[in-house]
Amino acid sequence: MTDGPRPTVATSESVRLGVLLAAVGGFVDVYTFMTRDGVFANAQTANVVLLGIDAASGHWASARGYLPPLIAFVLGVFTAEAVTRPAVARIVRRPVRAVLVIEILVIAAVGFVPASAPNAVVTISISFVAALQVTTFRVLVDQAFSTTMTTGNLRSFSQAVFRRVVAGHKDAGVRAANFGTVIAGFLGGAIVGALAVRLLDVRAAWVAAGMLVIALALFLFDEWRDVPRVRDPRV
Questions:
Q1: Is residue 229 part of a domain?
Q2: Is 232 left (phi over 0), alpha (psi -120 to 50) or beta?
Q3: Average pLDDT over residues 94-111
Q4: What is the pLDDT averaged over residues 172-180?
Q5: Spatial distance between the Cα atoms of 111 and 121, rounded to a whole number of angstroms
Q6: What band does 93 get if pLDDT is binned at 50, 70 and 90?
Q7: Which residues, in sequence order, are CB contacts of 190 under 8 Å at separation 6+?
Q8: HSE on the CB side for 154, CA within 13 Å?
Q9: Residue ranges in the chain assigned as alpha helix (H)
Q10: CATH label of the domain that carries residue 127
Q11: Spatial separation of the C-alpha atoms in residues 168 and 88, rounded to whole Å
Q12: pLDDT tens digits, one per residue of 15-52
């Protein structure tokens, strides 16, 4: 009796999906930077720092302006967690795909927001989407990673390279390749985002929405291929 095919990694944790979502992360960061006065809406570190600076200076009105994207990010995390709760899961049978659909709808809607609209309309929306994505997609094969920022991925890549070169761990070489690919995807998304904004201005958001449609299609494609995979109960 022979063993059946060895299950491969779940689609939600695959390098293919990780690279694509990282590309969306890079794209969206460039999009808000170029169309919304130099704002990076994916990560909230800058908002917390600027909030602290204004609070220390007594500029309370300005400080309050940093609260909406922070609150939107928290609500995005709450939403991503809520769709996996048993009570909600009975209604939302495939929460990971549901998150992608929400992302697609929000980012597509952002493409309709004119440049004359307040920046907060877009940055709050993107903060919400970033929280959804970073909370839902946290594992690359067997390692924690992020699709919306690259600092942690760069650290993991560097550690893996060191362990492969210095300690000779072969599995570290695979991890280095995985993280290197994701970092390259983030950079590639940033480049495509810059080009798209130059051509399409605020409507470039629709390109990012299209990339997320491809990400959603990966789940359907893998389901259609019926390749044995490690099961992710969320998808």
A1: no
A2: beta
A3: 96
A4: 97
A5: 11
A6: confident
A7: 26, 27, 29, 30
A8: 7
A9: 15-35, 45-57, 60-64, 67-82, 86-89, 95-110, 119-136, 151-165, 170-200, 205-225
A10: 1.20.1250
A11: 46
A12: 999 999 999 999 999 999 999 988 888 889 988 998 99
23 secondary structure, DSSP code: H
Cα–Cα nearest to 26, from 207, 185, 203: 185
Number of structural domains found in the chain: 1
pLDDT tens string 109-150? 999 999 999 999 999 999 999 999 999 999 999 899 999 999
Residue 46 belongs to a domain: yes
Is residue 220 left, alpha or beta, with left meaning phi > 0 and alpha meaning psi from -120 to 50?
A: alpha
pTM of full prediction above 0.85? yes
pLDDT of residue 230: 55
In a domain, 30, yes or no: yes
From residue 123, alpha-carbon distances to 6, 68, 90, 94, 151 in Å are: 43, 9, 32, 27, 21
Give alpha helix (H) positions in 2-94: 15-35, 45-57, 60-64, 67-82, 86-89
Which residue segment(s) compose the domain that 214 sits in? 12-220
In the chain, what is the straight-line distance between the N-terminal and C-terminal CA atoms, in Å?
32
What angle separates helix 119-136 from helix 95-110, to the nearest 10 degrees? 160
In a domain, 1, yes or no: no
Query: In one letter, which amino acid is 133?
Result: Q
* Torsion of Cα atoms, 228 then 142 then 131 then 91, to 10°: 30
| pLDDT of amino acid 3 | 47
